[in-house]
Model the fold of this input.
Amino acid sequence: MYTLEQLAELVDGQKEGDGSVKISGVLPFEDARPGDITVAATPRYWNNLKATRASAVIAPLALQSASLPLLRTADPMLAFARVISLFHTKPFHTRGISSRAEIGKDCRIAEPVSIHPFVSIGDGVTLGEEVTLHSGVSVGDGCHIGSGTTLHPNVVIYPGVRLGRRVIVHGGSVIGADGFGYVFDGEKQVKIEQTGTVEIQDDVEIGANSCVDRATFGSTVVEKHAKLDNHVHVGHNSRIGENTVVVGCVGISGSVTIGKNCILAGQAGVIDHINIGDGVTVMVKTAVTRDIPSNMTISGQPGRDHRQQLKIQAVIRKLPEMYKDWKQLKSLLTKRS
Done:
């Protein structure tokens, strides 16, 4: 339990109203009860603060209220993320190594760790402190898993993969499967052996049922603080930049380089050997078929500058009317001729 004043100090915010009010949880605006704090990050909530039963509200700096205490901040959603972590982040709980786990030869396993039943660990694996491997996890030979990393049930880590510190990989994801490389010899597809690896840097989170393929040579890299959603595919030899967010059902082909602080929205696709600069936003269902300079927002199929795409879409919406006018003009000219 925290007081509102304590929370304001922890998130570098400003309290308005009774700073001694006690907060024991975080819930959505409509569901919050006395003792909870909620967030009003958008205008739809600002003029309706009396509708919540929360004891306090996280709000923008400009918002003022006489009806209930506020935690005012320049970025309400960032403050919300930090506050909710105070109540819901679970400390590491050591279970040791289950007798029903299979551990290979020459492994270096730090203490403490939590290795659940039916985990399979290959030979020569290194595990840092406070690593958690849930049931059904498979870790191949020669892998390195940094301290504080959590692998949820049925994650598969192929041989030779490196995971940094505090990495989270959700259930069913596969890291280090072969990249998709084949050459047609005129009769059949000949496989190109994938001899590289995957490097997942510190504080990366990978959603459920996602795949990051190993490189043909060298490494496929996901840089620190990047976040991959569920059902994301990262092809061989690609590099995902620091702090980049890749939303669900995005497909990234091989040898793609994506810069820092980018956003790839749902169902976007990137063809092979593309370079995307820093700070780029790729909107929903965009097909990226050419290099994209830094700080652009692109949309469409093929992807182009979003403002240009909006103009094109505006013209497309008028095509039925334009076609009707064209037919009338053609008919008139035919009659005159």
Notes: The domain at 2-88 is CATH 3.40.1390.10 (Udp-n-acetylmuramoylalanyl-d-glutamate--2,6- Diaminopimelate Ligase; Chain: A, domain 1). The chain has two domains: 2-88, 96-308. Helices lie at 4-10, 43-46, 76-88, 306-317, 319-336.
